[in-house]
Every structure is written in C-alpha cells, then in structure tokens.
Amino acid sequence: MKTLTLRRLVPAVLVTTLVAVGLSACGGSSKTSTSASASSATATKDATVAAEVPAAFAGKPLTVALDASYPPMESIATDGKTVEGADADLANALATTMGLTANLQNAGFDGIIPGIEAGKYALGMSSFTDNKEREKTVDFVTYMSVGTAIYVTASSGAKVSTIADLCGLTVAVEKGTVQQTQAEDQSKKCAANKQIKVLVFPDQNGANLALSSDRAQAGLADAPVAAFAVKQSNGKFKIQGESFETAPYGIAMSKKSGLSKPVLDALNILIANGVYKSILDKWGMSSAAITQPVVNGATS
User: Where are the domains of the chain?
Assistant: First the structure.
C-alpha cells in the first residue's frame, strides 16, 4: 500500500454480480458524505470519557473518514448511502462512548490523512496500518492486528505460497497501501527478467476487477479483505499461502487534536464490555482482535 504506506487490510455496494462484488475492497468511487450505520451495538455514553473530549469536538458530530470500498471493513450498504462494516460500527460505538455522534464520511483512501492534517476529518478509520513513518504525521490508537494475504484467480494455475513466488507475475494492488509497497519492494528482489508487473488501482474494487477480468494473476490485500473477496467471487478467486507481515491497524487523528486519550479510553471500555467483540464477530474479524490498544504502537 507508497511512501506513507497505508494498509487499507482494508467496500462498495454488495451486488450479486461477480464484477461488482468480489471486487470491492478499498476505495469508493463516490467520495461523498454518507449516513452512519445504525450499529452502535450496546455502546453507551461514558461520562468520564466524555469529559476528556476536547472542547473543539464536544457537542459536535465526530467526523470520521473511511474509504467505503473495503469489505468487510467498510462499504456502502444496499441503500446506496449508509456506510457499513467493522470500521463503521466501531466508529459509531466509539463516538457514542465519547458522548458524541459519528458523522461517517466516504473519502479516498490516500486523501484521508491529508484531510486529517487539514482539519477536514477528526478521525480516520480505514484499515490504516500504524507504522513509524506515518506516526511522524498523525497519532494512532491501535485497534486490530492484521496481515497481508495473496489471492489468485483459480484458473490462473499460479503456484504461489509466499510473496517471492509473485516474481514474473502481474499483481493488482490498491494505490497508497502497504500492499503496493510490498509488491514493489519484492519486485526489486526478483531476477531482472522476472520482476513483478504491479498494476496499481485507485481502489480495491479496481484491483479485484483486474483479477476477475484476467488482467492480473494475483492480488495483495489485507487478509480479511482478501478472504471476503474470495468468498464473494463464487469460486473465481482463492487464497494462496499464509498471511504475512502482521501489523496493527490504527485509528488516525491529528497530533494536535487531543483525541488520543478519549479514543483510547473509549476503545478500552468497548473491549471490556463486549461491544468490540460483538462487532468483530459480526463482520468475521475475530482473528484480528486485540486486548491492549495503545497510542502509536508501530513496530516498523
């Protein structure tokens, strides 16, 4: 996923055709304001956390940016406007715990962190990998742990078990993601006549479509996103090998916002009261759960 690598391990409207479905994962074509998913679960306002919310945000909608094309993390529901998914539900639950209401904004993935810096968004929850490079720009509160998966077209015959096996293949990735960096870095290690042809798309839907149309032989995405694409592909895609380079997802916010403590405390409450678990279970993300979120937990 470029210099400020973003893992957006990491949806558009889920429709019944393969082209539109299997193929949603990390960057919506419509970058507009959307309504919130009605899934704050059993989250309730916590007075102590609410008192920690900086005055600049108190009593106002909490604007949260997501790239709603990355199921099961975030996508547009069948009504064409509601953002749904694990990130959407967690954003709603966090805002409720903080005594606020989430205003979910569908935004281009690689524009979310610049939007936070510009004051357009309070938070970014879009399957961002918390890494040391990004921590120079924004603060993160970690909330999941996810690796990258390789998925291929079942008809390609590609024998892939590790990223090194992608040498000589055409690989589809989303722009600005950790996976873009992983593919490009691996290509440099391949033999001169076996470098990876990396096809970069503005969203995950485009990357998935490249596989379904046989423009690419393999794709890289966050493991849950790849698994979701495989599930929706009706046998067109399959996972190859084990996920790798597991790293924390982080909720992004401005270093000047003062939001890191209330967000961290709200998340700890959701973990303790079971809301966090219920949301991850709902979206098939249980394996990504963590028990001890931290501020700026990058490992690399």
Answer: 47-146+247-287, 147-245
147-245 is classed CATH 3.40.50.2300 = no
The structure's pTM equals 0.78
Among 224, 220, 242, smallest CA distance to 5 is for: 220
Total Cβ atoms within 10 A of residue 300: 9
Same fold, 47-146+247-287 and 147-245: yes
DSSP states of 16-73: SSTTTSTT--S--S---B-PBPS--TT----HHHHHHS-TTTTTS-EEEEE-SEETTT
CA-closest candidate to residue 100, choices 254, 257, 255, 263: 263
Antiparallel, parallel or unpaired: β 74-76 and 69-70: antiparallel
What CATH code would you report for 47-146+247-287? 3.40.190.10
pLDDT per residue of the chain (300 residues) written in tens, 0 to 9: 333 344 443 333 333 333 333 333 333 334 444 444 444 458 999 999 999 999 999 999 999 999 998 899 999 999 999 999 999 999 999 999 999 999 999 998 989 999 999 999 999 999 999 999 999 999 999 999 999 999 999 888 888 999 999 999 999 999 988 899 999 999 999 999 999 999 999 888 899 999 999 999 999 999 999 999 999 999 999 999 999 999 999 999 999 999 999 999 999 999 999 999 999 999 989 989 999 999 999 988
DSSP string, 116-167: HHTTS-SEEEEEEE--HHHHTTEEEEEEEEEEEEEEEETTS----SSGGGGT
For residue 50, give the nearest of 13, 105, 95 by alpha carbon. 95
